[in-house]
Design brief:
Pfam families: ABC_tran
Strand order of the largest sheet: 5-6-7-3-8-9
Largest sheet: 6 strands, mixed
Organism: Lapidilactobacillus mulanensis
Helix content: 25-40%
Protein name: Lsa family ABC-F type ribosomal protection protein
Keywords: ATP-binding, Nucleotide-binding
């Protein structure tokens, strides 16, 4: 397979003031398993669209590949899955079944309607279709969004065994680490390529950033000295001219006529301007060397520790619908300062447990759940499409401190030019940040977060990790990202199907 050569790629959306790519140059080997990472809004999906000639750009992209994109679009999701797939591919049944077996999926799934499949099942079916033709180059955009921990591991092992190259976008660090042999990072002012997986990228990036921070500090000190020197030399120039021409208020002082004073003023101004220009040039030269490092601002949360030692006591809890139990009975306790993760496959009842704690579950319940009365709970939901209106109105309607709410949104990476947009018009990543910033801005004794990392980039995940480890709030978390769970939780409860 050939390479993908990108020359002087320049692109920006019309409604944005800055370019996403500015004369970018890259040479990508088509045999690489390339992990594409970067902050939300940096242009990861845009780059995949550009490769497919879906957007107009300046520059040149040279390759001899045919790209296949994930996720593909199914027009009629009510069809049986096999016939739905025939809309976008002429793959034969045995080929699809072969890939499904490699993904650990029962091929009988082909004879169910596509819209009856879970999000994870739909993901695996579409990935199976993607890799049938080894002559195509796969572009895989966020395959982990609807996969549980086991599903992510199955897909990771599937991609590891593939001999062909691909580009994969994912915010799951563990997943990217498993499937990639090269990393491409879209940063503030450049695109960088690294040989190795995500762990290699992190190590090399840290060394590079540490060095650049040291250089930046030296440059900033130099710039400060130059600015001070410029001011002092300008002041000295004026004072010398004053000494030369005398002070009219002092007896015996030599005072020039009006014409001489005007000429003197002009010379002083010219000398001052020359000094100023020289200093400005030196300062500009220094400032141009400053590196555009990714600074991540710390978040804030309004955690209010309760006087209660124990916030939750769950004994022999079992949930289901019409006696069809979702999981085997579980028991656990949540003490003040603990952070408990509920782990289990999709459909095992993780979110249902949260609904019970919030008195929102409509199915069958056995066992006991005890918690203090009037416990202040802050909840991050999986589904937050009912968040609507302007951010100011949203803060007021939800009794949030507007300044704290907007500050957290900005620190999460939402640009201030988006602040005037209505929430329902924002991207899914931006809407997720609204939901998360709301939770952080609420006074709470217990935080219940249901899949908080969906749509968030790696930098946001690190922000949340640092915040949680610093504040150490009491939390109950449902999440499929193994790296996040291992870093922030103190206890884990594993659900097993009945």
């Amino acid at each position: 397979m050939s390479n993908i050569e990108i020359k002087n790629l320049t692109f920006g959306y019309n409604n944005q003031g800055t370019l996403l790519f500015n004369h970018a140059n890259l040479n990508i080997d088509a045999t690489w398993k390339l992990g594409l990472i970067g902050r939300n809004g940096r242009g990861k999906t845009t780059l995949l669209k550009i490769l497919q000639d879906q957007l107009e750009y300046r520059g040149e992209i040279i390759h001899q590949l045919h790209f296949n994109y994930f996720p593909q679009t199914i027009a009629d999701k009510t069809q049986l899955t096999f016939y739905a797939l025939q809309e976008i591919s002429d793959a034969e049944q045995w080929q699809i079944e072969r890939e499904l077996n490699l993904l650990g999926v029962d091929p009988d799934i082909l004879w169910r309607s596509f819209d009856s499949l879970s999000g994870g099942e739909q993901t695996k079916v579409m990935l199976a279709l993607l890799f049938i033709d080894e002559n195509n180059f796969p572009l895989i955009d966020e395959p982990t969004n609807h996969l549980d921990i086991n599903g992510r591991q199955q897909v990771a092992e599937y991609l590891q065994k593939k001999h062909q190259g691909f580009i994969v976008v994912s915010h799951d660090r563990h997943f990217v680490d498993q499937v990639s042999d090269h990393i491409m990072s879209i940063e503030k002012n450049k695109i960088l390529l690294y040989q190795g997986n995500f762990a290699t990228y992190e190590a090399e990036k840290k060394l590079s950033d540490d060095f650049e921070r040291d250089q930046n500090e030296k440059l900033k000190k130099d710039i400060g000295r130059l600015k001070q020197s410029a001011a002092e030399k300008s002041k000295w120039s004026f004072s010398k001219e004053g000494e030369k021409w005398g002070n009219p208020n002092e007896p015996g002082s030599k005072v020039a006529g009006k014409g001489a004073i005007g000429a003197r003023a002009a010379r002083v101004m010219k000398r001052s301007k020359n000094i100023e220009h020289r200093m400005e040039n030196e300062i500009t030269d220094k400032e141009s060397l400053l590196k555009n490092i990714e600074y991540i601002d710390p978040l804030a949360m309004d955690f209010q520790p309760t006087h209660h030692q124990r916030l939750l006591t769950v004994k022999n809890l079992q949930l289901g619908y019409e006696q069809d139990w979702l999981f085997q009975p579980i028991s656990f306790e949540l003490e003040r300062g603990q952070r408990l993760a509920i782990i289990g496959p999709n459909g095992a009842g993780k979110s249902s447990i949260i609904q019970v704690l919030l008195n929102q579950f409509t199915g069958s319940v056995t066992g006991n759940v005890d918690q203090p009365q009037n416990l202040k709970i802050s909840y991050v939901r999986q589904n937050y499409e009912d968040n609507r209106g302007t951010l100011t109105d949203f803060a007021e309607n939800n009794h949030l401190n507007r300044e704290d709410f907007l500050n957290n949104l900005h620190k999460l990476g939402m640009e201030r030019n988006v602040f005037d947009n209505k929430i329902e018009e924002m991207s899914m990543g931006q809407r997720k940040k609204v939901e998360l910033a709301e939770s952080l801005s609420q006074p709470a004794e217990l935080y219940i977060w249901d899949e908080p990392l969906n749509y968030l980039d790696i930098f946001n995940q690190e922000q949340l990790e640092k915040l949680i480890l610093s504040v150490q709030p009491t939390m109950l978390i449902v999440e499929h990202d193994q790296e996040f769970i291992s870093k922030v939780t103190t206890e884990q409860v594993v659900l097993r199907r009945d």
